[in-house]
Amino acid sequence: MDTAGTPSLDRIRIGSAPDSWGVWFPDDPLQVPWERFLDEVAEAGYEWIELGPYGYLPTDPARLSDETARRGLRVSAGTVFTSLHRGPAVWDATWARVGPVAELARAMGARHLVVIPSFWRDDRTAEIVEPPELSAGQWADLARGTERLGREVRERYGLGIVVHPHADTHLDTEEHVERFLDATDPDLVSLCLDTGHYAYCGGDSVKLIETYGERIGYLHLKQVDPAVLAEVVENGLPFGPAVRRGVMCEPPSGVPALEPVLAAAQRLGVDLFAIVEQDMYPCPPDRPLPIAARTRRFLRSCGA
Predict the structure, then answer these.
(1) What would the DSSP string read from start to end of 23-38?
(2) What whole-number distance in Å separates Cα of residue 214 and Cα of residue 223?
(3) pLDDT tens, 62-110?
């Protein structure tokens, strides 16, 4: 505890991401320019960032290193989307996407690659593109493919993969997350626990940390508005429209409470990134910075 009685979360490294500025795509007229994102994320008080969608930030390591360094920023991770439940036939296409992101992340000094399973429902059109439940064979393909990805990313790039349960993907609920963890090798596959997505899908983040603590390799911090979530569940809304209705809200007004999540993570006794992501696509360009600054102040009040 510090002298004011606030727990010291000295194992937690706070950052933010393009997602908190309404950035979901490499190039989109509804999104703020990357220069503005970098300026504002530094102004809001963050030192760590993620790359966001590959191609949004400069992909030349020398240029990106210059742009981040002069703003006092460092990169914690890159992000890739995968469809490994589709089996070995998608491996080459998967690796073609993974390689450039992993290369840039390594060049920027990052140690993590966030891996998000593909959506079964399109996040732009809400069209259902696959059944929401995997077959036993697809679960096996997902587990083996993810282990292979973890092994090859580590061997080729020195990065660890952290798999991100996400709304409208096959890795969403507590049941699915636990099934995935039980089916994969802890030495190859860790989890990126996104507190907002896990709550959106009915999960308890503190329980997951306390039960599978050795598998937690990374955190995304966000909260869900319970009233909006109830409407989403009642009407079966896809994730994209749910975001536009404000289902992901500014801390500390939503759930889960972040203080016990951060305390549980601190008790693991390992260094963890905790990257703020408040899904807001699309959003007015002047909206993100004040929210990001208030969120940083709130997390400092929690000891982080």
Answers:
(1) --SSS-TTSPPHHHHH
(2) 23
(3) 999 999 999 999 999 999 999 999 999 999 999 999 999 999 999 999 9
Whether residue 19 contacts residue 277, with contact meaning beta carbons closer than 8 Å, is answered with yes
Contact 59, 101 (CB under 8 A): no
Quote the number of domains for the chain: 1
176 in any annotated domain: yes
Long-range contacts of 178-183 (CB under 8 A, 24+ apart): 178/212, 179/139, 180/139, 180/142, 180/143, 180/146, 181/212, 181/215, 183/139, 183/140, 183/142, 183/143
Distance CA 24, CA 277 (A): 11
Q: Quick one: tokens of 234? A: 């009642």
> Domain range holding 187?
12-301
Asked, for residue 263, whether it belongs to a domain, the answer is: yes
Q: What CATH number is attached to the domain comprising 111?
A: 3.20.20.150
Classify residue 221 by burial, with Cβ atoms within 10 Å: 0-12, 13-18, 19+. Answer: buried
Which of 140, 114, 269 shows the shortest CA–CA distance to 194? 114
User: Which parts of the chain have pLDDT scores under 70?
Assistant: 1-6
Amino acid at 211: T
Residue 69 within any structural domain of the chain: yes
Beta bridge partners of 44: none
Q: State how far the Cα of 43 lies from the Cα of 57, in Å rounded to an integer.
A: 18
Per-residue pLDDT, 125: 78
